[in-house]
Structure formats: structure tokens, C-alpha cells
Amino acid sequence: MSALHTLNFYPMAIRFLPALFLCLLLFSCLSESDKKDSRYSNLNDNLVLLSKELVADRRTDRAEFVLRYDEDDTELNGYTTLPVALDSLQALLRSYPEIENKVRLLPDAAVGNKTVGIIKVSVANLRSEPGHSQELATQALLGTPIEVLDLVDNWCLVRTPDRYIAWLEPGAFTAMTVPEAKIWLEGELLRLVPPSGFLTAAPGGTTIISDLVAGNLLRPTGRQQSQFLELALPDNTLGWAPKADFEPSGNWQSPDALSTDRLLEAARKLAGRPYLWGGTSPKGMDCSGFTKTAYYLNGYVIPRDASQQVHAGVEVELTDDFKNLEAGDLLFFGRFREDGSEKITHVGVYLGDGQFLHAGADNGRITTNSLRASAPDYAEHRLKSLLRARRLSPDSKGVLTVNDAFRSLLTK
């Protein structure tokens, strides 16, 4: 039987020889680019998998790879914020010695040695992509440090103390070396307490140098006139503001504990402010910008977005009577995707007795609603979309003091 099988094989092979010859002929006629398409298709798949493996959340880290080739050259471009990505790429490219690895590790040489900056406007608007017409991604307040990662078309890719990555125009911050930034942050700083204020050219004057919002940090020069202080912005621009509007930032940056009463007080003072997608300041806030700002005004930094905040703190079991909830807990709303996973789309602060304070686009401003059907401010769609509750405390996941968040940014 073995011999018979062998005899039958050769006629079959002979029948397929024309087809095999045709395949070899076609392959030999392929252009170099077509051959590279075939050779690199698997590599491209592996690059996509590597990026997903390295970066759990693109809002806080990046690993962007682009393989470019033509008939003459082959190179891997892109950038990453993760040093480990370069090691992983090196291992992946061992089988492709012809590929020139041009992936950049950020901060890039394009920003020089000034890899940090201090926000110098009351509220800086950070965009999801370079350009003033791009989506507002988040905001940063005057005196806040940022990590400067890259410079493209006169826009800087930066990282804020909550680890959020977005684009900012250079005019909104003062670029510094790490030692310079430490001098600014570790020196005496004053924090604006009222919701808003102004820095003027003269004590009590009407010529405005800059507007101010709660949480702005300025440096006192030591000069005082009547009830006014002379203050310096990060770029050393000087102006005057009422002494009563400020307090030393030390205790705020390193609080001993998180007071629920003070958290709710700060949240209630923001009531009525307009809803603003991407906003994280008293000028306007989205839902997670509101919760983030309430914590920030009490000396704590929490993640930026609702889908990130839902992983901070500890879980609180939801019941129909809300008996497990405590004032100050964060409530998370959303829906289920087709695959059964949760999609968190909204967050608010629980006030007690079924009420919560939140910034909703449907309300247009920060306002109070209730989860109880008997209440006049009942929001049925919110009750139906309530998915989770979390309790945040200083020793829980995702909660840092302002001082620790600032320091982590400068010592990364």
C-alpha cells in the first residue's frame, strides 16, 4: 500500500506543477512594496497588540507606532511615554534587521531641557488634538505644574498632575527646567479661596493683569499696601489682589484628612456654574470635572474622567433604599454595551436622602437632583442608569494629595 501511495503522488504533483510555476512567477513579478506588504503584515498586527498591551488607558500613557516603507527604505516611526516600550520593540524587531527604529521616547529632544512648565493663566484649555478648534479635553489652573512631552506645530503635548495627556499652546504656561519648577512650587505660594478674583496693576485698581479662579496659586513678593498684596505669576508678571482672598497653600497641598463637610461645602459653592464639556474649573465643568474640582479645592487630586474615577476609592453596594450610601460618595451612571460590559458616562456627588449634585448637559448647569420618585427634583433617567457608587478617601486607590501629585509629576 505504501508503494501504491507513492506511485499515485507523483502524477498528482506533476498535475500541480503548472500552478506552482505560475505562483512562483507571480511572486517574482511583485514589486518590492508588495513583497514588504506580505512580509510586514504580521509585524503590523504585533505592533497593534503591543500598543494595547503596554497602554491600558491612552489618556494617561501613549505608545503610538507607525511602520512606513517603500521599495527602498523601511522605518518604524511613532512615540511613547513608556521606557519599557523601547525594550519591547527591540525584541520584536530582532527578526527585521532592515527596519530602522525611529520611535521617540517622550519627553523628546524637541522640548529641550525645559521638560516641565507652570500654568500662567487662570484657566488653561487643553485640547484632545493640536489646534484651537479641537475638542476641549481638560483644563489646568494657574500655578499648576505640567510635564512637557513633545512639541508639534507650536503645540505642546503635556501631562497634568492627574496624569492626563493633552495638547496645550505654549502661551498658556511658563516652560522651566525641573529645578526651576521645584523652586517655584516649594517656595511660598498663596491660594485664591473665593470662586473668582482679579490681579490688578495697582492696589484696588481697575487695570486688570489677569482674572483668577479658586485654586489659583501665586507667589507673594513680600510687598503689601493697605489690604492688598503684590503677587507674581509664574512668568514673573506682577500685580495686586486683596489679602483677604488668599491663604497659604501649604496645608491645602498636604491636608491631614479629607473632611466630608468641607468637600460638600466646596461642591455646593460650585452649584449653578455652567456645564462645559472638558471643563475642570469654576468657569465651567463637565460631570467629572465637577467632582475632580471639588476634591482639588480640598487638596486632593483624583482621576480626570468618570470612567477613570469609577476605579478610584472602594466600592459601595447599591440598594433600592440607598442605605449604604454616605454623603460625599460618588455615584456613577451609564449603560451596558452589547458585550455586557459597563460604559460609565456620568458621575455626581451624593448628598444624602437620595439627592445628588452633578454637572449634567441635560440640566445645563451644576444642580441637585433626586433618585427618589416622590421628590420634586426626581431624575428618572438617572435612577435607571445608576450603575455604581464609590467612596474615596486619602488612603484609597486613585486619591493623592496635591503635594504628592505635583511631586510625582516632577520626579517621574
Strand content: 25-35%
SS-based class: alpha+beta
| Biggest pleated-sheet summary | 6 strands, antiparallel
Mean pLDDT: 91
| Alpha-carbon Rg, integer | 28 Å
Topology-level CATH name of the largest domain: endopeptidase fold (from Nostoc punctiforme)
Shape, per Cα inertia axes: globular
Structure, described:
Residues 257-390 form the NlpC/P60 domain. The protein has 412 residues and is α+β, with helices and mostly antiparallel strands. It folds into 4 domains: 37-105, Histidine-containing Protein, Chain: A (2-Layer Sandwich), CATH 3.30.1340; 109-185, SH3 type barrels (Roll), CATH 2.30.30.40; 190-248, SH3 Domains (SH3 type barrels), CATH 2.30.30.40; 260-404, endopeptidase domain like (from Nostoc punctiforme) (endopeptidase fold (from Nostoc punctiforme), Alpha-Beta Complex). The protein has 10 helices and 28 strands. It has helices at 2-29, 32-54, 83-92, 178-186, 250-253, 260-269, 287-296, 306-309, 380-384, 402-410; strands at residues 63-69, 74-80, 100-101, 104-105, 116-119, 123-127, 136-141, 145-152, 155-159, 165-168, 173-176, 190-192, 196-200, 208-213, 217-225, 228-232, 238-242, 246-248, 280-281, 284-285, 300-301, 314-315, 330-336, 342-352, 355-359, 366-370, 386-391, 400-401. It is globular and about 75 Å long.
Write the layout of secondary structure elements.
Blueprint: H1 2-29, H2 32-54, E1 63-69, E2 74-80, H3 83-92, E3 100-101, E4 104-105, E5 116-119, E6 123-127, E7 136-141, E8 145-152, E9 155-159, E10 165-168, E11 173-176, H4 178-186, E12 190-192, E13 196-200, E14 208-213, E15 217-225, E16 228-232, E17 238-242, E18 246-248, H5 250-253, H6 260-269, E19 280-281, E20 284-285, H7 287-296, E21 300-301, H8 306-309, E22 314-315, E23 330-336, E24 342-352, E25 355-359, E26 366-370, H9 380-384, E27 386-391, E28 400-401, H10 402-410
Parallel strand pairs: 2-3, 2-4
Antiparallel strand pairs: 1-2, 5-8, 5-11, 6-7, 8-9, 9-10, 12-15, 12-18, 13-14, 15-16, 16-17, 19-20, 21-28, 22-27, 23-24, 23-27, 24-25, 25-26
Helix pairs in contact: 2-3, 6-7
